[in-house]
Amino acid sequence: MEVIDTCFQQPFASLTDLFSKAEQIFKQNFGNRLYLYAPGMVSYETSYCRSNPLSFPAISVTGSWCYLNCEHCSGKLLESMFPAGSPDQLYHLMKKLIEKGAKGFLISGGSNREGYVPLEPFLPIVAKIKREFLVEVVVHCGLAPPQLVDALAEAGVDGVLVDVVGSDLTLRKVCHLNMRVEVFEDLLKRLSDHSLPVVPHIVVGMHYGKILGEKAALEIVSKFQPAAVVIVALMPLEGTGMMHTKPPSPQDIGRVMLAARLLLPNTPIVLGCARPRGDSRVSTDALAVRCGVNGVTYPSDALFTICKRRDITLIFSEKCCSLIWKDISKRVNEVGLCL
Fold first, then answer.
1. ∠ at Cα 218 (217, 224), nearest 5°?
2. What confidence tier does 331 reach under pLDDT thresholds 50, 70, 90?
3. Pick from 26, 142, 193, 232: most CB atoms within 10 A?
4. Among candidates 230, 208, 206, 233, which has minimal Cα distance to 218?
């Protein structure tokens, strides 16, 4: 863990050797291929690619309701999702969207007082849809109890997304949960025991823009074998408790991406969709390449230029980035890359 400590503690300018090591891992273990994702969850367009709003839509089974109302979200992220408040509504909505071209779905929702999305009544519908149509479904579950994990496994979901928090203080102050971070170890073990494809998400700067529990979150994740790890960052949203918070810098995000790559050399690492825009996004994307990540969601125009200069092969997808484990597994089977 000394190398990981260095990522977080040393001056950023002194991390050159670790960046070189991360790029070497990327080339040797993953064949110098970078996956670019643009699911239809937000409107996105650059000179090189654009999103289809119905390619991989997000659905909230609670509408905009969330009991926890975390300081960084307050349910605002749910407002952009399609609402489906009953299993019947979910079935008809998914079928309608498939008829319009959807190839997959993110099923999410607000959390109840126990910290998980009340998905149980909806998962039989997910299983039914997957039997009837050739689609992929990933699920954001929160702190799923054993019975929900059983239901996720029975439904055969293609990915389970979990925000892993590494600070007890952040859990209390930001997420409004009077729990300790050990709950994430218990959750990841339950999911792994069911052989579910687990994709932990780590939110850089979740604690009011500061780096606090990110290192601990990575250490928790590293005890298991996640299908992939997604690094995102605080985006101050209007109407939330952090609307005036200064977001984490590209360097802070870079530290977490670098630590993730070095700690999990054989695991796909993705720079996810939620991160500051503008010049910050350009700088973060450039650092993502230096950190040897496997995927970038909603990439900036500048990233294409950087990759062309470094002779990195780009592969575009309209799926949710959490499914990168499938894309890489398919590629490994085709060309026999060493993982």
1. 105
2. low
3. 142
4. 230
